[in-house]
């Protein structure tokens, strides 16, 4: 049967989503692949449909044990023989599953990474055609959700030499993708990266003072719509939910401190539209397939852009206009900074938090900035974010941009943001002297611009995709192909005029 017929027969869909078809063709052709698609983009199809066309079994590794049973039930309901293997099953259930496996009828088997060692013994002698590693960023300490059990997967390519491997994730920057491929032993894997753009989401950032009252006004305007409010702590979820309830809104809390039943219940009534607003920690939403979420509010700032993107991505899956509202507060940044300091991977976490903060403070199109984080560059401003809808004044900053880019090139792309500004301003501090960059031609070429203005300009240039931060190389600044056009091909650069503090204060008072 042809791919499209299978799509219709087993899944009830008439056409493929972007990239699905190419990926499926390559999977069937036996290639190793690295696929990055946003949440809701349809990653599962990339291995579920091929499993029907392959002779052997498809092994799916997924960390989401709680969702495995539902996924398998859904496949079975569609007539696809699938099963799963994880620690939630008792010995009897596992034995039943193994029986099915040996009978050779199964097409797909889902397993948690922790269970792979055990399952591996039972897979001996069973032909495995394809291995799908879902949420593959979990294997990399550079990703944002490292799980030690994933490192066990590194022997896959050697244990199952006939099988090809597809790694899938919604969040992996270029360096993380390279790391995933290396660790899974698929260095030569073909990469597919779907567009991350979600044009139907209006992006907005507001200062976090008086958040509760701001939300109250927002919710009044969006009456009867479904939405999620993300908070940092369980306590905040509870208190926001009860305050909103007191204001007459239909809200409930969701966090890991609730019982399993309570959480299931909140999730279920929310999906059924019997509850409008969920005040949740980031635990909420993983794998939830609700299409009409009209807004996602970040009451607290997320710890990085990957998390932010994933969370706002739960709004507007039906393609209708939806709103992503982020409150930006320095208290949150300080709190998050403490968490990052205490984490195993502090340097990267702090750099990612810094980027999140820059996003919140940006004076350029937010969507451009968001997409540039995923190495995707928009030519035009989006017209659907708070910056685009309330444009700051711009000036021709080609000269400043050339100075900064030239300094990046002349420092051999080995300067961090702070050091680069010091070099541009001709500072004579220890960092500059140690680096030896006082000898380069652009040293002091940007004296006339203040330190803070340089910082804003460079952040804008990062947001415009002219400069990239190499998180995994001490946050050194690198020039992108677009940046090279500015230096060598006469590309012009406009940057936003930086508002004076008193202007900012006046603007905030109006909101
Ligand atoms: P992801 O894992 O990328 O977050 P899923 O695989 O869960 O996304 O797919 C999200 C939703 O899109 C599911 O409800 C799925 O059935 C649906 N879907 C997948 N492929 C298609 C398609 N070609 N046409 C329509 N819907 C699709
Ligand atoms: Zn915009």
From TrEMBL:
Residues 211-364 form the Helicase C-terminal domain. Its EC number is 5.6.2.4. Its cofactor is Zn(2+); Mg(2+). Residues 24-190 form the Helicase ATP-binding domain. It catalyses: Couples ATP hydrolysis with the unwinding of duplex DNA by translocating in the 3'-5' direction. GO terms for molecular function: helicase activity. Keywords: ATP-binding, DNA damage, DNA recombination, DNA repair, DNA-binding, Helicase, Hydrolase, Isomerase, Metal-binding, Nucleotide-binding, Zinc. Belongs to the helicase family. RecQ subfamily. This is DNA helicase RecQ. The lineage of its organism: Bacteria, Pseudomonadati, Bacteroidota, Flavobacteriia, Flavobacteriales.
């Amino acid at each position: 049967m042809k791919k499209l017929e299978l799509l219709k027969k087993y899944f009830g869909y008439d056409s493929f989503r972007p990239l699905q078809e190419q990926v499926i063709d390559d999977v069937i052709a036996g290639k190793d692949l690295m696929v990055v698609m946003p949440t809701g983009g349809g990653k599962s199809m990339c291995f579920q449909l091929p499993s029907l066309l392959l002779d052997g079994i498809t092994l799916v590794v997924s960390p989401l044990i709680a969702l495995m049973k539902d996924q398998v039930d859904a496949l079975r309901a569609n007539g696809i023989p699938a099963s799963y293997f994880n620690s939630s099953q008792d010995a009897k259930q596992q034995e039943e599953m193994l029986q099915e496996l040996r009978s050779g009828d199964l097409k797909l088997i889902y397993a948690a990474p922790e269970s792979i060692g055990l399952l591996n013994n039972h897979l001996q002698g069973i032909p495995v055609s394809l291995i799908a590693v879902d949420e593959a960023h979990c294997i990399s300490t550079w990703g944002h959700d490292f799980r030690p059990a994933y490192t066990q997967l590194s022997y896959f390519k050697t244990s199952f030499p006939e099988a090809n491997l597809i790694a899938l994730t919604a969040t992996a920057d270029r360096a993380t993708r390279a790391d995933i491929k290396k660790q899974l032993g698929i260095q030569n894997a073909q990469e597919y990266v779907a567009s991350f753009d979600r044009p139907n989401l209006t992006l907005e950032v507001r200062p976090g003072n008086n958040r509760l009252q701001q939300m109250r006004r927002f919710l009044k305007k969006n009456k009867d719509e479904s939405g999620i409010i993300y908070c940092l702590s369980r306590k905040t979820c509870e208190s926001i939910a009860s305050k909103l309830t007191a204001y007459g809104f239909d809200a409930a809390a969701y966090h890991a401190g609730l019982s399993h039943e309570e959480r299931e219940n909140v999730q279920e009534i929310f999906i059924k539209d019997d509850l409008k607003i969920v005040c949740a920690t980031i635990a909420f939403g993983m794998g939830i397939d609700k299409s009409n979420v009209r807004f996602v509010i970040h009451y607290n700032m997320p710890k990085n852009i990957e998390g932010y993107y994933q969370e706002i991505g739960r709004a507007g899956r039906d393609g209708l206009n939806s709103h992503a509202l982020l409150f930006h507060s320095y208290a949150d940044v300080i709190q998050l900074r403490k968490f990052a300091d205490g984490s195993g991977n502090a340097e990267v976490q702090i750099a990612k938090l810094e980027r999140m903060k820059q996003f919140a403070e940006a004076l350029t199109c937010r969507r451009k900035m968001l997409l540039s984080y995923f190495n995707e560059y928009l030519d035009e401003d989006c017209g659907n974010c708070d910056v685009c809808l309330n444009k700051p004044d711009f000036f021709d900053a080609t000269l400043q941009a050339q100075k900064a880019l030239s300094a990046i090139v002349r420092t051999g792309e080995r300067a961090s943001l702070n050091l680069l500004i010091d070099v541009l301003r001709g500072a004579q501090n220890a960092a500059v002297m140690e680096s030896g960059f006082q000898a380069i031609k652009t040293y002091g070429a940007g004296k006339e611009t203040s330190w803070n203005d340089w910082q804003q300009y460079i952040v804008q240039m990062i947001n415009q995709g002219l400069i990239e931060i190499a998180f995994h190389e001490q946050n050194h600044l690198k020039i992108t192909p677009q940046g090279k056009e500015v230096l060598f091909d006469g590309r012009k650069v406009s940057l936003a005029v930086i508002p004076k503090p008193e202007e900012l204060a006046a603007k905030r008072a109006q909101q």
